[in-house]
Amino acid sequence: MTSPRFFYLKPRTLDTAGFAYVSGQPSDDQDVEAHRVASGRWSELNVYSVALPLASVSRREVAREEAQGGLGTYVGSCVCVAHRWDGGAERWTYGVVTGYRWSSDSNRCVLHVASSAGNFDFGYDKELLQDLAVETYAMRLCKGHSTLSTMPAEMRAVHEAAYSAFHARWWGALRSLEAICDKIGVAAVEETGVVPVFDISSMQVAQVSAKHVLDFVFYHDENCRPPPSVKFGNSIFDDPAGQAPAAAATARVSSNPAVTTGADPLQDSDDDSDSSVEEAAVPSQTRASMKRGREGDLTDFGLQVRARPRLSDDEASSAQLLLDGVPGETGGKGQFRASRLQNTVHQAIVNGTPLWWEFGTRGLSLLHFGRIDATCRRQLLAKYDMCDFSSSNGLPRPVPAKSLDDILAALDVLALLVEEVYQPFVGGVIKAARKFFLLQKTFRCTTDEEELADLVFWIDERLEKVRTCVVLGSTARCSTIQDEFNVAHESFVQVQNIIHKRRLGSLQASTATTSLPPRGRNKHEDSFSSRTGAAAERVPEFVLNALPIAQGRKLCMRYLSNQGCRSTGPWCTFAGRGHFRTQQLSATVRKFIESHYGGL
């Protein structure tokens, strides 16, 4: 078996926005099953394979060490590297990689970097290099910082925090660079000046204003409606400030085919030069769309929503013509100013904000999904204005649960909603909760509202954990929440301890009541006791065993007798006895009541 061969191929050949390495072994039909090498800039991408003719890639063969090091993958990328200017300390510098030179001696491997302060060669050191999205590259948050004052890990944390603030979901995204700096806690920087951006289709470096880069990514790539004052072209290189890509080109990289070249990676012969020219004319993709793994899919939040399709050029121009005629954007005395409520409704309609998972401390409870009949629904519609989205129209309080059936009914309603709107891992939590309380209903039948409130609060805490896992980007941890619906889990044991402590307090209060001096009895009761001797006689054991039991308490026989019990509440003054009606009464108990308490 022959050893695999390695090749250096051009952008978009291996589903990457830049250059990439492949490995493969030629087959009998002179084809190569090329597998993308996970190295350098693409070290975190998934496996990708494609069949290529050996003749088209044989002249682009490189050494195994070069492919596994991934040095050439950084060509065209925006980077932050450590560089020493004029003999001073090493400082963080921003630029674009225009080429590279690899050597078997690792100390001689360099990247050619073009920056706004000049061009230089960077001795490849993975620890002192960070590949950036074009928007965080344009912010230049660590520019000029010494590598001793801002360590590499700190530099990466700053860029990651800025990227998250710039691309926050829904209405949390920040366009203002000053607001981003304030949020992540770094010194404010200006978004003035120009930054070099590499056009990989023409292999040229264009000088583009930093403000244009941020505006283009924020409004164009994110498909957001820009304000009237913001203008940009069809690509990130069309800077309306006046820097044309061709006029601003400052460098063209080497034509060495082992490093960078303008020909098709699959067509190296002179006869196929036309196809390479056609490929070079294709506009390059923006950095934000090229970078993989930077921005999570909308389904990360457990929501089955699809991204809104981008308008075509004709549709966009037609829509812009309609928008240009809106009085609110043309100024004048009749300028329209939307109210806060109108803006809220408009954003909800345009952006299609899905339902939030606001359980627990955010106010939403499981019992908000309880079943209601037609009468209750009519009363709620009359009480709450469903068209009022202002903050004054707050979330109503849910109806307290009367039994475990109310909790199960709310879980059934919530399961229907989750099945239609949310991802399966959310539905798994609801199913686990429903199964758990079905088993609880088999062993317990409580109607105490405080106990039920404790159980509902415990469920809401579990549902709130789902949102926490999603926000942290760990949807796989949601499966562990299902395991918490277990009688042996520590959180449920704590709830049980609270319930038992409350019951013990009630029993102690009941015992203290029985130790008080008896109240005065009427003459009939005194004469009956003196005549029968019932006050001094203990109830036989066989009678106690025949008493019916409800909620852990045996029936108080005085409660059903003509004599009556001194206590009028649901609990008897004697510990372990309760007041309730029963459909069946044994002959032993009936005979004892008739003979000792004056009959039923």
- Which strand order spans the largest sheet, edge to edge or round the barrel? 4-3-2-1-5
Q: How many β-strand runs?
A: 15
- Pairing-aware structural class of the strands and helices? alpha+beta
Count of helical stretches: 21
> How many discrete structural domains?
5
Mean pLDDT: 76
Poorly predicted regions: 243-312, 314-333, 519-536
Residue share in β-strands: 5-15%
Shape: elongated
Q: What's the helical proportion of residues?
A: 25-40%
Largest sheet: 5 strands, antiparallel
N/C terminus separation:
99 Å
Instruction: Work out the radius of gyration.
Output: 38 Å
Structural key phrases:
600 residues; alpha+beta; 5 domains; five-stranded antiparallel beta sheet; 37% helix
